[in-house]
Write a structure and sequence with these properties.
With 378 residues, this protein is α/β, with parallel strands linked by helices. The protein folds into two domains: 172 residues, Rossmann fold, CATH 3.40.50.12080; 129 residues, no CATH class. 39% of the residues lie in helices and 9% in strands. The protein is built from 14 helices and eleven strands. The strands form four sheets. Strands 2-1-3-4 form a four-stranded parallel β-sheet. A three-stranded antiparallel β-sheet has the order 9-10-11. Strands 5-6 form a two-stranded antiparallel sheet. Helix 5 crosses helix 10, helix 5 packs across helix 11 and helix 5 runs parallel beside helix 14. The radius of gyration is 25 Å and the shape is globular. The relative contact order is 0.13.
Length: 378
């Protein structure tokens, strides 16, 4: 069986396959509790989170069909999607912009293909940073599909180190200036809780903007069972979201036990500072767990630093995108996060001037930690 054949079988009902060769309906993915009934058809559309919600939502009163995540869909898939939408009673979708990947995959575009009687319910993309405050997602400006090796999540501590390493390469002769740019403050429980509060606030803003089912309040008292990474919720979250969707659709209560942990391939480390910040009953774990293998954080950091050396624009993109978190956690000073590239350039210029003055026999200017917004008091 080729990879394409395996994919088509995995999404069998989506592709119109029948009989033993088809998969993709119901909570188990093969034969749901509403299969073969007159229960209304629902599809859940979005990123990798959509399939987890579909599994937890399937029941005797709602038949669901497995659909490829939006980022996997190609032009040849459009006729199959249109055929499915033409008989869909409920479209549950994360907010997707019009013409995503130059294809008519926006939520509004899909809704226009539904029967007149169909309902559309939106759910947010679930991201919560409180349990993993140092981890972020960055889309490189050169290619938004690029991701770092080993794990796809960036660590802000590694980003800050990569910025300092770049400064060191630009200013190899001025170790005093480099030392003044270390600027690492102690991460406290207060800082971690600030990250959590801002993450909840961002999620709430997205819920209100897109009129989605509410999820943000679930993280008022966070626990590791809720999130495996910043964007991979655990089963308890999906159980709660499915119940809220059923309520919005005026369906009866129905709890699904999928028989496995969903979105289970990657687990982020559990930091002692986070456990203390939220007074969690949990043991710290330094390693990442990737497909069952323990991966030491040092391995991830080495791989990511090498990757940043090949993709230096990612450093500036990460600092610009996550400036609030970097300053909240005390990893970089405000004037660096305001313009990281300019700060590096100014530091390099200051070091070059100092080297030139020294070689000319003059007393080099002492770096004040403020010139050009590049140096910082230790």
């Amino acid at each position: 069986m080729t990879a394409d054949q395996g994919r088509r079988r995995h999404y069998g009902e989506f592709y119109g396959l029948e009989g033993d060769v088809a998969e993709g309906a119901g909570a188990s993915g093969s034969a749901g509790s509403a299969a073969g009934t007159d229960a209304p058809l629902a599809i859940v559309f979005g990123n990798c989170q959509a399939e987890s919600l579909r599994i937890m939502l399937d029941g005797p009163d709602l038949r669901t069909v497995r659909v490829p995540p939006v980022f996997e869909l190609e032009p040849d898939d459009l006729p199959h999607l249109e055929r499915l939408l033409s008989r869909t009673a409920v479209l549950i979708s994360q907010p997707v912009r019009d013409d995503y990947h130059d294809l008519p995959l926006g939520t509004a575009q899909l809704a226009a293909l539904l029967p007149a009687s169909a309902r559309v319910v939106r759910m947010p993309v679930v991201r919560f940073a409180g349990l993993y405050p140092f981890h972020v997602i960055v889309r490189p400006p050169e290619d938004a599909s690029l991701v770092p090796p080993v794990v796809e999540y960036h660590d802000l501590r590694t980003i800050a180190r990569a910025w300092r390493e770049r400064l060191r390469r630009a200013s190899p002769l001025d170790q005093a200036l480099i030392g003044r740019n270390r600027f690492v403050e102690t991460t406290t429980g207060v800082r971690i809780r600030e990250i959590a509060a801002e993450s909840i606030a961002q999620l709430r803003r997205r819920e209100l903007h897109h009129d989605t089912v509410r999820v943000s309040d679930l993280f008022a008292a966070p626990g590791f069972e809720q999130m495996r990474t910043i964007n991979h919720p655990g089963n308890p979250v999906w159980t709660a979201v499915a119940a809220r969707l059923r309520e919005r659709l005026s369906l009866g209560e129905h709890v699904v036990d999928p028989g496995r942990e969903l979105l289970n391939e990657v687990h982020a480390p559990r930091e002692p500072d986070v456990i203390r910040a939220f007074q969690l009953d949990a043991e710290p774990r330094a390693d990442w767990i990737v497909r069952g293998r323990a991966v030491p954080p040092e391995e991830v950091e080495r791989a990511h630093l090498a990757w940043y050396a090949q993709h230096p624009d990612v450093i500036d993109a990460a600092i610009a995108r996550h400036s609030t978190a970097l300053t909240t956690l005390g990893l970089l000073p405000p004037d660096v996060v305001a313009n990281p590239a300019a700060a590096s350039a100014a530091a390099a210029a200051a070091a070059a001037a100092a080297a030139a003055a020294s070689s000319a026999g003059a007393t080099p200017p002492h770096p004040t930690g403020r010139a050009g917004g590049a140096g910082f008091a230790s």
